[in-house]
Amino acid sequence: MTSxxxxxxxILLLGKRMTSGDEVDAWLAKSPYSTCEATNVFQALEEISDxxxxxxxxxxxxxxxxxxxxxxxxxxxxxxxxxxxxxxxxAFPCQDQRQDSGLxxxxxxxxxxxxxxxxxxx
Length: 122
Description:
4-stranded parallel β-sheet, 122 residues, 4 helices, 4 strands, alpha/beta
């Protein structure tokens, strides 16, 4: 889905992918938000800062092995980046939080950060 709203993109850091059918990945695929999966934080930053495309995805998500380390590095990179690279960052860590209640919290966070976007249902 292509987004035409003007808002800061969201980078969603997910803990290590435990199964090929990850619940958050499936939820994002069904969500009304435009999404893009990145393989690392550098690609995520590239996705939100590419000025050659008309719109950025609403959410760029990636699975990482060391969530806290990647979160700190990403925040530092965003703080020190030159230009107009701005994004919100959400860390969604463990497999046990990826149940319906955890997905509802994630949906609420995205709705807060993407206020003019579509409203996600869980």
